[in-house]
Amino acid sequence: MKTKMILVLTALLLSSCAVLHRAPKTKAGEPWVALHLLGFYSDSTLIVLEKQIPQLSAAGINTLVLEVDYHFTYQSHPELRQTANTITKAGAGRLVRACRERGIRLIPQFQCLGHQSWAKETYALLTQYPELDITPGAFPDNEGLYCREWDPMNPRVNEIVFPLLDELTGAFDSDYLHVGMDEVFLIGNEKSPSTKGLDPAVVFAKVVNELHGHLGQKGVTLLMWGDRFIDATVHDYGEWEASMNGTAPAVDLVPKDIIICDWHYEPRESYPSVPMFLEKGFRVLPASWRNVDASRALIKYSLGLKNPAMLGHLFTRWSSASDSLAWFPPIVRNAPLLRKGR
């Protein structure tokens, strides 16, 4: 009980100390037409991306969210480079310049807390420091779980990860960082000694607030996925797009200057989480995937709310394919809606 009370008070204190960040660098009334990218994990692949910047700009894309994770030549913790061939500071700088020449905002992403593995591969942090796993020693070969997560109660995690985040925002000269935070399922798990019995919402808010506090001191605005803030018992999205494991109340324990990327991939008549986030004071960047009709429905619904805190739209590909990015069908069909909608 004492531990829970300390966590609650810490979350509320950090939430009340929100840092006022710089406003998004967009032209007056210009929506964010954003694209999330995977698979560009080295300087050579960034050159492939750079060649497509003119086509992306012509398609209306003005923001790229580039998931980097452990694929950077980190100096603070070189042992956390996922592979030998990674993105360098020089390579990042070259892509930044190419994007700016076309008026494109480039935002790096580092998956925090969750998504520390995929299939049988465990990523660098928990490979090098297995003691920082939220379920240490459990799930051999990653069998029986979705993805590994780091231990949110171990202060050593922040000591290691925060310098990585600083290197990324520095290399990409970015006032923004996407920190992931989606699909977190293991807080409070019986195989998690540090979180078993704790309130998942308070623990989740603790991580968000610590990230927000650190990045805010650097003048960096935090973007994150919104699914763990959505109560699946209230909004009928299911356990992936919304939370069924107790994290949803964290939405009221975090600062409101966070940009929420509210992802929904199937067509619906309404998307009630979007106005929910807006009413709570967040800026919102809804996100869609490959279903053209679903993307169109989400864009039309979001724009129909006519709320100035609705930033625009984030197209996601969830593919490592590196060619023909501008010809992704949801972009071709639906990006024009964003320009017309304003």
Task: Give an overview of the whole structure.
The chain is of the alpha/beta class and 342 residues long. It has one domain: Glycosidases (TIM Barrel). The chain has a nine-stranded parallel beta sheet with strand order 9-8-7-6-3-2-1-11-10. α8 links the parallel β8 and β9. The relative contact order is 0.15. About 6% of the residues have low confidence.
Distance N to C terminus: 50 Å
The radius of gyration computed from the alpha-carbon positions, rounded to a whole number of angstroms, is 19 Å
The number of helices is: 10
Quaternary structure of the protein: single chain
The counted number of beta strands is 11
Average of the residue pLDDT scores: 92
Percent helix range = 25-40%
The fold-level CATH name is: TIM Barrel
Structural class: alpha/beta
Basic shape: globular
In short:
The protein is of the alpha/beta class and 342 residues long.
SSE blueprint:
Elements: H1 2-16, E1 32-37, H2 43-50, H3 53-58, E2 63-67, H4 89-101, E3 105-112, E4 117-118, E5 121-122, H5 124-128, H6 155-171, E6 176-180, H7 200-217, E7 221-225, E8 259-261, H8 273-279, E9 283-284, E10 287-288, H9 292-304, E11 312-316, H10 329-341
Parallel strand pairs: 1-2, 1-11, 2-3, 3-6, 6-7, 7-8, 8-9, 10-11
Antiparallel strand pairs: 4-5
List its salient traits.
10 helices, globular, TIM Barrel, 342 residues, two-stranded antiparallel ribbon, alpha/beta
